[in-house]
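Usage

Read records sequentially. Each one opens with the input sequence:
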Amino acid sequence: MKRLLARRERHGWSWPELSRHCGLPVWKLHWWRSRLSRRRRPPKSHRAFVPVQVVEAARRDVRPLEMVSRSGIRILVPADFDTDHLGRVLKALASSC
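and closes with the structure output:
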């Protein structure tokens, strides 16, 4: 099966093309590829923890949220906005529009 899969690589055949050449269904060819690739993996380490270094996250330049009302009023809301304050502003705008 290894030689058959290597032949596919060498010739650049698709899975259906390989299936036509060897007479095996595509699902079985995929199964063999999966099975053979699992054997080649090195054994996993049994370490449960790895050392890490905690660093402060870099602040990305977050663009403000832009809101446009039906009447055309445009509001730019920064990323660190106060939800209560924004609610009061929106309520005031709704009553005046």
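Summary fields computed downstream for this record:
- The chain has a mean pLDDT of 81.
- The first helix runs from residue 2 to 11.
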